[in-house]
Amino acid sequence: MVGHIVMWKLKESAEGRSAAENAKIMKDMLGALPGLIPELRTLVVSTDIFASAPETEVVLYTVFDSPEDLQVYQVHPEHKKCVTFVSAVAAERRVVDYIF
């Protein structure tokens, strides 16, 4: 199994919206992916973060069967739509991929 965790700090404003508004959009977009990408086994996304260092406003936890399935997810057109939006609103991104 492969875990993929991503954490974002958002720009104070982007795309004409506040960070909180963009975080909600990100959560909704990412939350729709499990029904669209069969290789995605588990997806949890949260904007209710009570402790992080450095500051994080959106966190994503996903699970895949293999590194190959993670790669399929990375290039999937539905995931790419999320990447386009997130790239426009994120100030910082941290990611970790691991096998368990």
Please give a structural write-up.
By secondary structure, the protein is of the alpha+beta class. It has a single domain (2-99), classed as Alpha-Beta Plaits (2-Layer Sandwich). The chain has helices at residues 19-31, 67-75, 77-89; strands spanning 2-10, 13-14, 17-18, 42-46, 58-64, 90-99. A 4-stranded antiparallel sheet has the order 4-5-1-6. A two-stranded antiparallel sheet has the order 2-3. Strand 2 (13-14) and strand 3 (17-18) form a beta hairpin. Helix 1 packs antiparallel against helix 3 (77-89). The longest helix is centred in the N-terminal third of the chain and has 13 residues, at 19-31. The protein starts with a strand and ends with a strand. The model has no long low-confidence stretch (mean pLDDT 98).
Could you tell me the CATH topology label: Alpha-Beta Plaits
Instruction: Look at the structure and give the CATH class.
Output: Alpha Beta
Order of helices and strands: EEEHEEHHE
Percent in strands: 35-45%
Rounded to an integer in angstroms, the radius of gyration calculated over CA atoms is 13 Å
Give the proportion of residues in helices. Answer: 25-40%
CATH architecture: 2-Layer Sandwich
Largest sheet composition: 4 strands, antiparallel
Q: What is the distance, rounded to the nearest whole angstrom, between the alpha carbons of the first and last residues? A: 5 Å
Q: What is the number of E strands?
A: 6
Low-confidence stretches: none
* pLDDT averaged residue by residue: 98
Q: Give the strand line-up of the largest sheet.
A: 4-5-1-6
Give the structural class: alpha+beta
Q: Which of globular, elongated, flat, extended, rod-shaped describes the shape? A: globular
| Domains, number | 1
The number of helical elements comes to 3
